[in-house]
Amino acid sequence: xxxxxxxxxxxxxxxxxxxxxxxxxxxxxxxxxxxxxxxxxxxxxxxxxxxxxxxxxxxxxxxxxxxxxxxxxxxxxxxxxxxxxxxxxxxxxxxxxxxxxxxxxxxxxxxxxxxxxxxxxxxxxxxxxxxxxxxxxxxxxxxxxxxxxxxxxxxxxxxxxxxxxxxxxxxxxxxxxxxxxxxxxxxxxxxxxxxxxxxxxxxxxxxxxxxxxxxxxxxxxxxxxxxxxxxxxxxxxxxxxxxxxxxxxxxxxxxxxxxxxxxxxxxxxxxxxxxxxxxxxxxxxxxxxxxxxxxxxxxxxxxxxxxxxxxxxxxxxxxxxxxxxxxxxxxxxxxxxxxxxxxxxxxxxxxxxxxxxxxxxxxxxxxxxxxxxxxxxxxxxxxxxxxxxxxxxxxxxxxxxxxxxxxxxxxxxxxxxxxxxxxxxxxxxxxxxxxxxxxxxxxxxxxxxx
Length: 450
Ligand SMILES: Cc1ncc(COP(=O)(O)O)c(C=O)c1O
Prior knowledge:
Elements: H1 13-25, E1 49-53, E2 56-59, E3 64-67, H2 82-94, H3 104-115, E4 121-125, H4 128-143, E5 147-151, H5 158-161, E6 192-194, H6 200-209, E7 214-219, H7 231-241, E8 245-249, H8 262-266, E9 272-275, E10 286-290, H9 292-295, H10 311-326, H11 329-351, E11 355-358, E12 365-368, H12 376-389, E13 392-393, H13 406-429, H14 432-435
Parallel strand pairs: 3-13, 5-6, 5-7, 7-8, 8-9
Antiparallel strand pairs: 1-2, 2-3, 4-10, 9-10, 11-12
Pyridoxal-5'-phosphate binds near residues 72, 127 and 128.
């Protein structure tokens, strides 16, 4: 039997032991920075899980949690979704990787073409960063140019991480605090140039300064808020004027708002789009889709990898996209996200704290105004700690899935109200340090799109 944790007896001893062991076996402990213990309340938050179903998971200490992290958004229907897992098991029984090609590649391509406005041709990969690297290769190949203007996070590969050679070496503050380009060839410095979301003047100046050299503008079209009206339209016009390929990276913002992505929601169709994460509900998958004009020349480029033909991701993705459509997902996400927002707003008000639940309904966030002189990390660490002790696993922002129920939202609201009261008391009594039983949370690396 698992127990929904109660603040009084919550223990994560086994998680902590395993994490210590991981420090000896795995440099950096985990495979994704956002999974490191220092991104949560290290000492109190769960670090290792043993099973997950729907909106919940059970950690290695037998505590059950409502999961609002949703595997950094990759889980969209819910953990261990029976339809997707059924399709995957079926595929595994017929072979996970063939020597010949699988017609599913064409079936998924047709599904993507019917779903994502910019999709006329498709290439596959196994993750978001991988797919971003493919998109950049194609854009450089098509234009014969090298430089990429970027706005957002686009993965771990050299082409992108070289952007941090643009950083002020003294402060390290721009553009990506927290990402150091260690091991990235210095020869790539200057090939990737960041621009700030919403700043059209900056983008225009960069396009002029590097006229004839820019292959692509790669950007997250939205993250926590929708763009100002006309912004993406103007970016698109500028790209067209300069003969630059416009790429939307919808790895994080895709699938929830509309199944066809932010581009469907705002009505701006880029030349190319990168998708991954939620497209396959927890199975490795990624894709680059785009117009025939931009994609077709890729047949002459060296873009090739053995496991990009894997059947499991293809089967999972076809099933996930069809289920999103069948379950009327954009409407459901609106209901779930808005209900969550209202309980979180009520919890903030009930605690008498200054703040609000901000962001799109696809990723509501508890945003608190921290009094002057108080380190905001103390407030976020204490909130995450207290939520964990009440059986809710989350960052300051929440990633809904279709499996989150009204009861999950009610319990989350209760946990948030209690947790925020602890935060308020700590602020009022000036004893946050005593209340925090975890290491101070590290801020995630900074992105250009909020
Ligand atoms: C917008 C965006 N692009 C690319 C990536 C990289 O994807 P992956 O972690 O699957 O390599 C991420 C991951 O968070 C992302 O948010």
